[in-house]
Fold each of these.
Amino acid sequence: MKVNLSKIVLFVLFGLFLIGGTNLILFENVYADNSFHVVTNPEFPGKATSASIDEKTNKIYITDFFAGKLFVLDGETNQVLDSIEVVKTPFGVGVNSETNMVYVGGEFSNTLSILDSVKKEVIKEISLTDPYDIAVDQKSNTIYVTSDRSNMVYVINGFTNEVETSFEVLVPCGIAVNPETGFVYVTSESENLVHVWDRNSNQQVTTINVGESPRGVTVNPETNMVYVTNQINNTISVIDGGQNVVKTSIDVGEIPRRVVADSKSNLVYVSNQASKDISVIDGASNEVIKTIPVKVPFELAINQNSGKLYSMYYNGNISIITKTNIHPPPQKQIAGGIDVENVTCKEGFELLFKSSNSQPVCVKPSSVEKLLERNWAHK
């Protein structure tokens, strides 16, 4: 059997994720100036694994794989509101804002927990083999759950909370649904395919060839475009949802894991696991317009109302990257977690480093030459 070294690297990196836990980052985008700034948030009391957002209440539901808990974060204040005991080893999570139901998959406990977000308690558990990724179609109240161990995707009726049907996909991973068309997109890492399932006819309509080891997938319902991460190729496949064909491919960072789309700004975010950054793609031009350095990003979640992006990675604290009208000075950026070499200055200023201590400073262009001549600073 031929061994793919790149896939071994993926396996090792995921193993490090299970050992080291995760951290949570938050981004708030502003498309006008492409500015993303770092602030510091109080410690997160767990190890964030995956997240889903209730956009009606502006609450973020975050699984902690290691503690078997579901944390509830206030999307406005970024403070933890609740900690709820759920299924063991929770990974995937999905929210239906219309019914106040939260679905949590116990990846190695073969159980899907259904939580009433108002009562803050688990109301039902469904036996499923290795539930992993979850997508919720609020329009039809249908929940889709992938299981890579059973090579199945389970379709759950949200009114009865029972498995309605299922369909086969070889090693399914990422899943996304377009509520406007009823099409469901599932990545198959081993086949290098995206399977397209039609909710209306309850059957597979086609498969789409993409890059190697596709993992994450997302849909922008406003443009009917589908985005898929190809981990081995370091690319994003852009699929036209109207014709279900690949329109183009975009180069991103190393080992792109997950992808989410902000339908209001038409921005697409990609977590690049190995290069430790997030690519920001303009959905209109299909070009990377920004790269944001982070600490080994894994899972992503986007709040369509606020434009805030949540990214989970190693460690246990919460760091926040948010856009503000005031560009934070260099020292505040560093205090918020940005490396010195990644410090940025607001428009109209240039970045220099003090000769005395190599600390970054932002100065007016007219002062640059004088400061360099006097050896007060260097580039």
Amino acid sequence: MTQPLTFEAFRDHLAEQLELGGRPLEPQHRLADDLELDSVQRLEALVAVEELGVELADDCAGPEQTLGGLHELYVREAGGPSARA
């Protein structure tokens, strides 16, 4: 099994897929309030996670979810230790 991505690599993957470049993306940023992702974009974030080989439930990308929280769910589902280096 492949090691889960670090937070930084995970963040960069989502930023590229969601076209979020040019702004700082921190673990504590909430998907809706801080990153200003609407409901469709939050589902697109889940699709980006699926591209990494992990399927998460739709409710995992609620408006209050943080980028770091989404990464932790990804790591847990990928079966690896926390990779928040």
